Amino acid sequence: MKDFIIPQFAPGDDRDMGTPARTGAPVTLTIDGFGVTVPEGTSVLRAAAQVGIMVPKLCASDNMEAFGSCRLCVVEIEGRRGTPASCTTPVAEGMVVHTQSGKIKKIRRGVMELYISDHPLDCLTCAANGDCELQDTAGQVGLRDVRYTPGQNHFDPTDTGARSQAEARLRMPVAEANPRYTPKDESNPYFTFDPSKCIVCSRCVRACEEVQGTFALTIEGRGFESKVSAGTATDDFLTSDCVSCGACIQACPTATLQEKSVIEMGTPERSILTTCAYCGVGCTFKAEMNGDELVRMVPYKHGKANRGHSCIKGRFAYGYAQHKDRILKPMIRDTIEEPWREVEWDEALAFAADRMLGLQRKYGRRSVGVITSSRCTNEETYLVQKMARAVFMNNNTDTCARVCHSPTGYGLGKTFGTSAGTQDFDSVEKSDVVMIIGANPTDGHPVFASRLKKRLREGARLIVVDPRRTDIVRSPHVEAAYHLPLRPGTNVAVVTAMAHVIVTEGLVNEAFIRERCDWDEFQYYVDFVSQDRHSPEAMEALTGVPAADLRAAARLYATGGNGAIYYGLGVTEHSQGSTTVMGIANLAMLTGNVGREGVGVNPLRGQNNVQGSCDMGSFPHELPGYRHVKLPDVREIFEKAWGVEIDPEPGLRIPNMLDAAVDGTFKGLYCQGEDILQSDPDTHHVAAGLKAMECVIVHDLFLNETANYAHVFLPGSSFLEKEGTFTNAERRINRVRRVIHPLNGYEDWEVTQLLANAMGANWHYTHASQIMDEIAATTPSFANVSFDLLEEKGSVQWPCNDDAPEGTPTMHVDHFVSGKGHFIVTEYLATDEKSGPRFPLLLTTGRILSQYNVGAQTRRTANVVWHPEDVLEIHPHDAELRGVNEGDWVRLASRAGETTLRATLTDKVAPGVVYTTFHHPATQANVVTTDFSDWATNCPEYKVTAVQVSPSNGPSDWQESYNEQAERSRRILPAAE
Amino acid sequence: MSPEKMIMMANQIASFFDSQPGNAPERIADHLRDYWEPRMRSQLAEYVQAGGAGLKPSVEEAVQHL
Ligand code: SF4
Ligand code: SF4
Ligand code: SF4
Ligand code: FES
């Protein structure tokens, strides 16, 4: 998948080099008279490409191992017999290769002629016309005739000897008489599979195996009868294991696997590089265009996070940007009972500004605040927090990271000294043991999961700590060495027990600790963690994890070579979320697994720019770059830059804002690109808070659930419509580029600036790059970042400053950012959220591959085919006790509220545990979650709620009254003429 | 915020620092100063003055440091 050596072609050149790059010692050879030096192990085909000689090929591609089946790439090598396939022949010192000769040409034409004899001659009307390797290669080898008389074939439905499907239709419009002909499979909403055009090169099969790691495709049958098949005989693409990552489509050299958008719109004529706006992997894509129409998104081969791969969301689910539900005109209303009124921008901005300033006059400076968006760009987020600090003159700014990775900020900040993952994604290629705690990468971070699975297939060992048997635990050719199915809420106990094993069994890396960590703190920690009460045996009854497995897993992590930890919201969204993060950092320090490739501690960030939104000072206690507002020297930097005095007191966090609203002291909110009503816990409380506010400004693409309580709606722009940057989970700052004109007229940072100026701010940014310049000027870890640098390098990982001008792929290399690493004792404290007679089950929540967060985007794409509703996973044993059958409606109740949804029976969850997603507003899973939260950061405890499940026959009263309110609230009066 | 929620949040913080080396009340006070907005701190202080029922002793002591 990864192309190690990018040839010296023009920047952005992503031509297919034929076979994967190698890293061996240099070898020099001659190809068609040109000398070339390449790493040992490189194929002759690739070496030729390196000097610009593109040897014809069909079954090879540089993101998969060579296969040697088509024999188009044959060459002659002096001193060797025959005509070896250049894709499977490695280079050798002094080798002399000829890629063209009479003999070679004859072979290639012969091969091509055979291929074309079973391929319809419909090029002019084919969707891949102009973008077809078969066509190109036929041209390259000089094929001028196909001498075979039409015989047995796979393309002519009528079996009438037609040479094209057009001709066949003319000859026999209805009949399907050819038993070898298989009609097009159009079941997948995004692409088609037309076996009649397949040349059985098996690139798709290998891409699915080697790049994606799903193994959904096989070649069935032998010889002339062989064909590509998805799943079993009765499956189509939709019902097969296919996860619509698109790797096979990219690999296919013909129109057999083809995007429906290309079929509809034609082949694209230009492309613009940009970054996916879904998850924290931050994949780079080519947005391929026809005029101003986006035809398709194709993962970019040299994208440093994704290395040419993608998942269904980034690859296909961008249609929401043009969805009819997009609101493109500003709207206002006096009260939330009234319908919306469409107005011009000036009126909306003046209305919003008057209200917010009026509220501050009436209720005080700290009575209003902002929520920045983890989906918007760094530049946009920076401006929104700047609005709180420099216009509202308070620190009431928060972001959705509050509800996901705020404990990461706290925990890693206290132990390592910085609030971010330690590695780049490439690092996993050097890992020997990977421990995944509370994360579900195949669904949440699919492209990282593919890269991880590749490493696992190469032999790295896997430990999964999760209450559910997630897909990564066992999938084709991947099996976890240990799955520790802990009881929800016992993370600290498990992590501490692992440390107990490492310390008491003498598996500690003492040299590392002596050099890199605070020794006294370590001693204190050793005393604590060695106590018998932390042993796996003592903890077993509590955690539900068999002690022997836990011991074995700890030993493996400590002694198995490079050990890397990846974790997700299953760690953070607990009352002891911050403590678990510290516990994880302790494990890495104990074993010396920090500061080089292949190791480290890596939070898998949920949203595309959640890292960036934290970096940009979205938190109420921190200015950009994680510097506390109490520090006078930090305030001074911003006071000088902004010409204002900065409040030295921390502001309100989102749950605190809602509490203060209910108390009557917080009255106005500017909420950009977040839907707190659906995403935040305890919906009743969120609704009460929003309802108590006198001015809620929602700035979004859609009338989201929060907008039901808003007074001003400012239309937002999608990632396709703006310039800026996102920062992914590896701290990588990636460019987002404007692909189409903003449908609402403005990029989001422009809207924020208009609003700020309506309140007297006097900002004058004319391009997002100027905002980045201001960030760089005020934030040391961004000091050298600029749009020019990103243009040149593609992307950089912060810190990027004079100490690290090219950015920092691996952190804490020689020392921790904070100087010494800090061991912190991690006492397990049971959450107060306990199951009992009334609520005997524990609910944990998560997400699935095809949907994203509250679903505002993915629900407005064909992805709903895979997930039309949220369902409740329940163990068959618990279901039977309650008389619940597969597909039944059930009532899910906690002390906070109740909702109804359908149940599905599965042993992926242990008895006593139930699981659901929160992608659909109709389900309102967060009506059930409570307001319990992490002790340090108030990150909600989504992952543990005591619940009861019982049969039900329809929506709950809350769901009905909610739907009514939502419908009423969404009425829009058109603008007055 | 509701008194129950405030008590719970403050006690959670105390539980962590009670388990750490060093002076827990001071560290609790530092944490509250760093992360709790002034009106939250005042609410807590007022509650302590009114008797502080349900709060851990280290929280009550921490409030003296605020
Ligand atoms: S789209 Fe991805 S998962 Fe589906 S068959 Fe193709 S490569 Fe495999
Ligand atoms: S579907 Fe495409 S990639 Fe797969 S075997 Fe056929 S031609 Fe090759
Ligand atoms: S959703 Fe994540 S993994 Fe999928 S394409 Fe986008 S950034 Fe990549
Ligand atoms: S490309 Fe080498 S055999 Fe097909």
Task: Report on the architecture of this protein.
The complex is a heterodimer of chains A (977) and B (66). Chain A is built from 30 helices and 37 strands. Chain A has 977 residues and is of the alpha/beta class. Chain A has four domains: 148-322, Alpha-Beta Plaits (2-Layer Sandwich), CATH 3.30.70; 331-400 and 610-763, Rossmann fold (3-Layer(aba) Sandwich), CATH 3.40.50.740; 406-603, 3-Layer(aba) Sandwich (Dimethylsulfoxide Reductase, domain 2), CATH 3.40.228.10; 841-969, Barwin-like endoglucanases, CATH 2.40.40.20. In chain A, the strands form ten sheets. An eight-stranded mixed beta sheet of chain A has the order 15-14-25-26-27-12-13-37. Chain A has a six-stranded mixed beta barrel with strand order 31-35-32-34-33-36. In chain A, α14 (491-504) runs parallel beside α20. Chain B has one domain. The longest helix of chain B is centred in the N-terminal third of the chain and has 16 residues, at 3-18. Chain B is built from four helices and no strands. Chain B is an all-alpha fold and 66 residues long. The two termini of chain B are 19 Å apart. At the A-B interface, α23 of A face α1, α2 and α3 of B. Bound molecules: iron/sulfur cluster (SF4) (3 copies) and FE2/S2 (inorganic) cluster. FE2/S2 (inorganic) cluster binds at residues 57-60, 68-73, 85, 87 of chain A. The site of one iron/sulfur cluster has 13 residues of chain A, from α5 and α6.
